[in-house]
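Dear colleagues,

For the upcoming journal club I promised to circulate an example of a predicted protein-ligand complex. I picked one with NAP because it came up in last month's discussion. The inputs are reproduced below in full, followed by the predicted structure.
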Amino acid sequence: MKVMIITGASRGIGAATAIAAAKSGYAVCVNYHSDEAAANEVVAQVQQLGGTAVAVMADVSKEADVVRLFSESENTLGKLSVLVNNAGVLETGSIETINENRLRRVFELNVFGAFYCAKEAVKRLSTKHGGSGGSIINISSVAAKLGSPGEYVDYAASKGAIDTMTVGLAKEVAEQGIRVNAVRPGVIYTEIHASGGEPERVDRVKSSVPMKRGGEPAEIADAVVWLASEQASYCTGSFIDVSGGR
Ligand code: NAP
């Protein structure tokens, strides 16, 4: 059974990806940071589908936690096939409201965390290190292209870094059997908006989406599972915008 680690999978896009991956036959490592009950609920949903999952607590913005996450996943579920770099955070407010704490919080999780996880994944997947290959899928955002003026230019910049990492790492490890791709969601109904300071954000901005609606986490999950699959075997350094045309 192929093993997929999904960071930040206790809710939102990560949880939806865990369910979609389980339906496609993956054993899933459900990483979470603070909400153990929610992560256990995702594991229970996977098990109800007849699948295999384990919840592992790790603060992905800390390299030591990431190292432990990957070894716990390996010890419980076996050899890794796919990493989904999904955990992310944002805070709402224009440039005048940005301070060192906010920048650290956003970049340490969204950027440093994705790098720590990619490093651990490459060490296990690379044919250079005796691995069998696999894939990494980064959850970026259309914010990387739009810049999110007046809302969170820092968050948009962190996703710009993820886009660049996707392009560069894809080329770096292409000959090592590893594909690296990204999904750029638009505005999706999850709790990230409430925890970032604006619970009703999706409904506020949906009129600016060409399709005139917000997206559902499952619509992102399907793109992630496709990029992980053999159907995407010639895709690397690629981006799928799942954003209703935004
Ligand atoms: P969400 O509902 O806020 O969920 C965030 C998840 O990340 C939770 O499972 C949370 O776990 C986990 N997490 C937070 N801090 C963590 C840490 N330090 N270490 C490990 N896990 C941590 O977010 P979402 O909307 O599903 O977003 C998922 C990804 O999609 C993010 O990268 C986000 O930037 C991106 N995205 C979202 C949207 C959108 O409109 N929703 C649009 C574009 C891109 P705990 O609750 O257990 O702490």
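Two points we might discuss: Residues 3-241 form a domain with the Rossmann fold fold (CATH 3.40.50.720). The mean pLDDT is 98.

See you all on Thursday,
B. R.
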